[in-house]
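tool_call: predict_structure(chain=1)
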Amino acid sequence: MAVKTRRYSARDVTILVIGLGVAIVVNVGLIWGPTLASVGLSGTDWNGIGPIEWIGGENYADLAGEYPPFWSAVRNNVLWLGFLGLIATPFGLFCAVLLDRRLRLSRVYQSALYMPVVLSLAVVGFIAQLVYSSDYGVLNAVTGLTVDWLGDRSINIWVVMVAAGWRHVGYVMIIYLAGLKAVDPALKEAAAIDGASESQTFFRVVFPTLRPINVIVLVITVIEALRAFDIVYAINRGRNGLELLSVLVTENIVGEASRIGFGSAIAVILLAISLGFIVTYLSQLFREER
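tool_result:
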């Protein structure tokens, strides 16, 4: 029996071409184009005006040996990723599990936890200044301390990560809560009949079914940690202990230095770090599924 194929009209073809064409142009122009341009420019000393001169890996060598803010920024980005991944994300999951148990006033708690998500990180940065400022901060006023939370290089990165984590917890909580609502109640009932405790039911039955959610949360966490910029820039322009790779990219490309080639090298390193985490986890996940 011959398979009947559908013939597209000229109108259908036009709509498909326009729809796909716009998406491809936007994707290439705003994502892949700048990405490939950054990779190419990272091997030059272009300042945005003069001729482009190829210098190979000199920018990367200068980053490693002659640019002190670089290693401080790498350290802070790793700390940021570790804090969001190991503290803020599990706490968001914990809040989602509690809210899924239909606690009294759970809607109020859910709204209170999710509220920071609607704020941009720049606004969170301004709120952090109101809380942590050594002159007019709420924390010092309430506790009677005289700590310079944002000026002391040894502690300012930690208090800023707490502020960023405050926002991240609500984001993770709402994603996991949606996933928990989709878990088949029959699985929990079967585990209870078999004599499993609540913790055993969660870790051995419920949590494995959240694997797709875990992938989403991982990607979001890595992106949030590596693209953090506005909160530290709003506090002190990303200096004095709050250096991040994203801030260094901005300072070198659009700042007074106008070192586009040098800034592109930092951007490529930021891209490589983010892809390293995501590709490693996804490849392991797909290997397990096979």
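agent: Residues 3-37 form one domain. Proceeding to next step.
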